[in-house]
Design a protein that fits this description.
Shape of chain A: flat
Strand content of chain B: 5-15%
CATH architecture of the largest domain in chain B: 3-Layer(aba) Sandwich
Largest interface: A-B, 22 and 30 residues
Strand content of chain A: under 5%
Oligomer: heterodimer
Distance between the termini of chain A: 29 Å
Order of helices and strands of chain A: HHHHHHHHHHHHH
């Protein structure tokens, strides 16, 4: 006990550099930013406490409410991304010739910068672009679709880009989890006569549960925080249909220098993130850990 | 320590040779004199004349293309103005405003900053810019600029900057497409332009016109239709609805290029379509013609130029002026020198030189009267023709925007949303505009209460 007590300050001493950096570059901006969202802060005027005024203005603002609704709609990407990533991980978890190439290919979208993604998908979704060309050639459509100019399709198009960008990242996470699963249980199940589906559903999935939980939470948070794809593809249009809550925060805070309002919007997004992450933790937690 | 020991040793050796043994005060006096001499020599060689005033000016997204121009401009000024040190700083346009406000708040603003008119109006409203009427008058410069340029910069009766360059739209048309559509005459009104767009679509299957409907506010103002009157939104009036109906009819007849039609910036999409021979008429500033010339010589060769019809207001479309403003916080004693440099930067000679490199339009009367704009060479291409047409329109080119409204950009988005819904047929035009007007009025009422 005595030894443990004397070790504690030393442990904190070793943690101190990282904690100081975290405090300076994460905790302080979060706390100060949250405080500023309750003020009328401006670089050129005296700052006053305004209480909940910024939040009241946010919830009276149709653009922010559209953004919040769209951010919640963005959550629809999560199950598709997770199921897609698990399926891909299962596919590339075979020792076949050229498999490394496939793994790398699926990971390319993750390392591609968002500006390149914007240019590429902008071209793909263009009315004269690749996607419309292919669909027209296959006689699946009669006239080009406005993937980025139709207010219904535009949000779906952005969600698809988000799905495409996330797939490779989660695939790698699931692949690492799959490769760390002990093979003995699979072998025992084979001896017991379990078929492929039974082995996947009864052994692989339960053992992947911790990874599914982590990936789902990360994916939920990424979906709620979506704004880069919006910025490079539609800037909130058409008809403000692709505004997300965080894009609104960025638009107000950095483009129009309305910092308190942008910070209030970020604060609301953060609260949503924490709430939904809490729900995920509660319901996706592996049963044996309860 | 060993180094000082060696020096000390050599001094002692010399002392032994000369037989002169100095006291401590002798040594310190001697070393001080040597230091003072070296110091004076160094500075007399390095800087023949000491720079006693630094003028820092900021531009917006002009690097790297204009580095040689500005470097030469700075060198020339410094050579003729001993004692003045000029520093050029360029920022991307999207961070310039934030940088400027931060610099003003920190008490270290640049002497001059490149701004657009709406930004200047907003900053002048917040008391962040110096009016320059007195400087213009003192320099005898007030009559150098076009009336339109000075009118753009006059807010609440005072002028807030030195005009630098602007633009005005012309119609670049594809001769083959217009011939196939049977169009031979330039449109004289917006109605005619819309009718021609429909005619082109009907005869060739290609869109005729690509207006920037994301900037519908300027479009309506140019057509003489106010957005706000007596503190209330009036863009749902019968006249506004009638114009939007005409736009909707043109859209339904495929007269418009639909790609990015309602985007804040549809210019790249318009140029791409024109380059690819997919658009009959491209309404743009003469700058775009250079790109057509370099990227699609075939299309350029068959490009003709029309004058863009001025609206009922007599204002020409596409004016968007940039100027140099003096931020608040600059030392008052520095203002005469800053004014003189601004005069040099935005004078006839340099405006003309910049306009020639950048393909933009100058804002001084003399530069606009230069043969470069007025005398077409014998085999003038579309680019030269566009410059000549634009120079004629410059006196009535104004930057059109709604001034004095807090959160204007957000309100503008609701207007664009309503127009988009109406033009694309997703909503009834009157209802969509009524709804947007109600949002505007709620916001405007709040602003008035404050």
């Amino acid at each position: 006990m005595k030894q443990r007590l004397s070790a504690t300050p030393i442990a904190y001493l070793f943690l101190a550099p990282a904690l100081l950096l975290l405090a300076a570059f994460s905790f302080w901006p979060v706390f100060y930013g949250s405080y500023l969202s309750f003020t009328d802060f401006s670089l050129i005027r005296e700052t006053h406490w305004v209480g909940l005024d910024n939040y009241r203005a946010l919830f009276e603002n149709a653009m922010f409410l559209t953004g919040l609704k769209n951010s919640l709609l963005f959550l629809l990407v999560v199950p598709f991304t997770q199921i897609g990533a698990i399926s891909l991980a299962l596919l590339v978890n075979h020792q076949l010739p050229g498999m490394r190439w496939f793994r790398a290919a699926y990971y390319v979208p993750v390392v591609t910068t968002v500006s390149v993604v914007g240019i590429m998908w902008g071209f793909m979704f263009h009315e004269q672009g690749t996607l419309n060309y292919v669909l027209l050639k296959l006689h699946l459509i009669a006239a080009p679709l406005g993937f980025l100019s139709d207010d219904v399709l535009a949000l779906l198009a952005i969600m698809f880009v988000s799905f495409w960008r996330g797939l490779g990242w989660y695939m790698v996470m699931y692949l690492a989890a799959l490769q760390s699963l002990p093979s003995e249980m699979q072998e025992a199940a084979i001896l017991d006569g379990a078929n492929r589906w039974q082995r996947f559903w009864r052994i692989t999935v339960p053992m992947l549960y911790p990874t599914i939980m982590v990936c789902s939470i990360m994916s939920v948070l990424a979906a709620l925080k979506a704004y880069q794809e919006v910025d490079v593809l539609t800037q909130g249009g058409p008809m403000n249909s692709t505004f997300t809550a965080l894009y609104y925060a960025y638009d107000q805070g950095l483009k129009h220098l309305k910092l308190p309002r942008g910070l209030a919007a970020s604060f609301v997004v953060s609260v949503c993130c924490i709430g939904i992450a809490f729900v995920c933790l509660k319901y996706l937690k592996p049963r044996h850990r309860e | 320590m060993r180094f000082f020991g060696k020096i000390g040793g050599s001094i002692c050796k010399n002392q032994k040779k000369t037989g002169f043994y100095p006291t401590t005060s002798h040594v310190s006096r001697c070393s001080f004199s040597v230091f003072a001499l070296v110091f004076l020599l160094m500075f007399s060689i390095a800087t023949p004349v000491r720079a006693n005033q630094k003028i820092e000016f900021w531009t917006m997204s002009l690097k790297p293309k204009f580095i040689p121009y500005f470097q030469q401009l700075v060198r020339d000024y410094e050579a003729t103005h001993p004692g003045i040190q000029v520093e050029w700083v360029d920022f991307p346009w999207d961070i310039l405003q934030l940088k400027l406000i931060t610099a003003i708040a920190a008490g270290k603003p640049p002497a001059l900053v490149n701004l657009s008119v709406p930004w200047a109006e907003e900053m002048a409203r917040d008391g962040l810019l110096e009016p320059v009427d007195a400087l213009l008058a003192a320099l005898g410069q007030a009559n150098d600029y076009t009336d339109a340029a000075l009118a753009d910069l006059r807010f609440r009766g005072r002028v807030y900057g030195f005009p630098h360059y602007s633009n005005v739209n012309v119609i670049a048309y594809n001769r083959q497409i217009l011939a196939a559509a049977g169009i031979r005459q330039a449109p004289e009104t917006m109605d005619q332009l819309l009718a021609q767009a429909v005619q082109i679509a009907a005869k060739t299957g290609k869109p005729g016109y690509a207006p920037a409907l994301g900037k519908i506010d300027g479009f309506l103002m140019q057509q003489g239709l106010d957005l706000i009157r007596d503190g209330k939104a009036v863009f749902n009036s019968p006249a506004h609805v009638a114009l939007i109906r005409k736009l909707a009819a043109t859209y339904q007849a495929n007269g418009f290029l639909k790609d990015k039609l309602f985007a804040e910036d549809n210019f790249p999409a318009v140029v791409d379509a024109y380059l690819g021979g997919r658009l009959g008429m491209m309404v743009s500033a003469p700058t775009a013609l250079r790109r057509i010339q370099s990227d699609a010589p075939g299309i350029y060769a068959q490009t003709g130029i029309f004058t863009m019809p001025a609206g009922p207001t007599g204002i020409n479309d596409g004016g968007w002026m940039f100027h140099f403003a003096i931020p608040k916080g600059v030392r008052q004693s520095d203002l005469p020198a800053i004014g003189e440099f601004a005069r040099y930067l935005t004078g006839d000679k340099n405006q003309l030189a910049f306009a020639r490199i950048a393909g933009v339009m100058p804002t001084t009367k003399q530069a606009l009267a230069n043969p470069y704009f007025r005398q077409l060479p014998q085999h003038a291409g579309a680019s030269e023709q566009a410059l000549a047409v634009a120079a004629n329109s410059m006196n009535s080119a104004r930057s059109l925007y709604v001034a004095g409204i807090d959160d204007y950009d957000e309100l503008r988005r609701f207007l664009v949303q309503a127009v988009e819904a109406g033009v694309t047929g997703k909503r009834d035009i009157q209802l969509a505009l009524d709804e947007a007007a109600a949002i505007w009025n709620r916001k405007l009422a709040k602003g008035q209460r404050r």
